[in-house]
Design brief:
Number of helices: 8
Shape: elongated
Strand content: under 5%
Distance between the termini: 23 Å
């Protein structure tokens, strides 16, 4: 999937001209221009220690992936299992569960904190195993329940423990989304 996403982005960049469109492409970088001109090879996979040849955005994405790996490891090592089971069993309140219950027809957007598909799949698989091992769950749309309720709850819980912050601070960080650095500026995805 990451290779297909990258190919699709390149196709979109190639089809739209940047000149004469005002602020339409304010995110346009020199690397993207070189990439479409063919003077820069696309980076499909980076190896540890080879950051000197990589564009800034690729290095930043790899750093986000590495920092998120600690969260994934904590979740998969059963660090959030008690919290998640308490929510499934109704022993703990969850704003994500409340929102999910109120909006049964329409999907409510949940912030994307982790952009790495492999890491998302690892968390999803783990949360699925927790949900399947809990006999009291009664949600008809299991995928939506996992992604809209359990996924944010597990990320927030893991952020609080791994980064030694309160649940409120972890939730604020989750809602802001990942920090993205672009040409010396710091942006948040949220």
């Amino acid at each position: 999937m990451p290779a297909i996403r990258e190919w699709w982005c390149l196709r979109l960049i190639e089809r739209f001209e940047t000149e004469g469109h005002g602020k339409r492409f304010t995110h346009w970088t020199e690397e993207a221009r070189c990439l479409t001109e063919g003077t820069l090879r696309p980076v499909y996979r980076s190896f540890p220690g080879l950051t000197h040849d990589l564009p800034q955005h690729v290095v930043a994405r790899r750093n986000r992936k590495l920092s998120n790996q600690a969260l994934v490891d904590f979740i998969v090592a059963r660090g959030t299992d008690n919290h998640i089971q308490s929510i499934i069993n109704g022993q703990k309140k969850s704003q994500w569960l409340d929102t999910f219950s109120k909006c049964s027809i329409k999907k409510v957007p949940v912030p994307l904190f982790n952009e790495d598909q492999e890491q998302i799949d690892m968390i999803y698989t783990h949360l699925t195993s927790i949900l399947n091992s809990t006999p009291t769950h009664t949600h008809s749309d299991q995928i939506r329940f996992i992604m809209d309720v359990l996924f944010p709850e597990s990320i927030i819980c893991a952020l609080a423990v791994v980064e030694h912050v309160s649940i409120l601070k972890a939730e604020e960080k989750f809602l802001r989304g990942p920090v993205i650095e672009v040409s010396g500026s710091t942006l948040t995805a949220g």
